[in-house]
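Worked example 3 (structure in, sequence out).
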């Protein structure tokens, strides 16, 4: 898992209302307890008993239900921002415990660096040698339910896959295409063949490798430079496969 420079924007203002309010701008998302930002703020105040009131404004830029972890990153940001605003009443361990209760990907965004994730996402091992890649992300114009993908997933356990991946990741230079694999892709791509079309288009445009992100439907291609990524974006826009983003790894 790798964080990239595709951001939502979140403003937090302490108030004296004793209540949490959330205003959402940009892409359409819930503005109540269904939103992970609202739930993260509620969890923080429940844990610390510090709530004097909070006004939140979320400008949503990351595609929704697209396999990019946008809601999880927003929840992690909310926890960390509130902790800083209240002069760190919670330890790193406290934040990690709260994060996993909010969602499997939230602990990753608390750490916010390239990691191998195990368990349900809470066991994180940073990757020390991850190169500075550029990524072209293509998000087709439909949503995919993560729960639906997992309900339809049939997977066989592979012995020593973790150890193999770690050996591959620690190689210098790193050959990305050697370990690009996403078991969830078999489910999503079988129902939405455009996933495979996007992957091929990214490789044809010069990507070192391409893969569906999370449960999809977003697909990313890996590039060694910004110029190559921007050139690929032009090619992909002409094919009208969806929204296209050029981002840098963090």
């Amino acid at each position: 898992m790798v964080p990239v420079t595709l951001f939502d924007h979140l403003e937090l203002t302490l108030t004296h209302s004793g209540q949490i309010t959330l205003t959402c701008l940009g892409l359409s998302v819930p503005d109540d307890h269904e939103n992970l930002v609202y739930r993260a703020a509620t969890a923080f105040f429940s844990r610390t008993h510090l709530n004097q009131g909070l006004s939140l404004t979320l400008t949503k830029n990351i595609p929704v239900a697209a396999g990019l972890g946008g809601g999880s990153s927003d929840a992690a940001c909310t926890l960390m921002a509130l902790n800083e605003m209240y002069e760190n009443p919670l330890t790193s361990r406290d934040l990690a415990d709260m994060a996993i209760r909010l969602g499997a990907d939230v602990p990753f965004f608390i750490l916010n660096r390239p990691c191998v994730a195990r368990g349900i996402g809470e066991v994180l091992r940073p990757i020390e040698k991850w190169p500075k890649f550029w990524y072209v992300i293509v998000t087709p114009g439909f949503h995919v339910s993560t729960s639906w993908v997992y309900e339809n997933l049939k997977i066989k356990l592979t012995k020593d896959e973790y150890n193999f991946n770690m050996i591959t990741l620690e190689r210098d230079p790193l050959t990305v295409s050697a370990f690009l694999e996403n078991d969830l892709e078999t489910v999503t791509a079988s129902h939405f063949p455009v996933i495979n079309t996007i992957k091929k288009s990214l490789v044809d445009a010069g990507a070192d490798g391409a893969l569906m992100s999370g449960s999809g439907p977003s697909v990313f291609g890996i590039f060694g430079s910004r110029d190559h990524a921007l050139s690929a974006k032009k090619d992909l826009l002409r094919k009208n496969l969806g929204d296209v983003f050029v981002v840098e790894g963090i």
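Notes: The first strand starts at residue 9 and ends at 14. The two ends are 11 Å apart (CA to CA).
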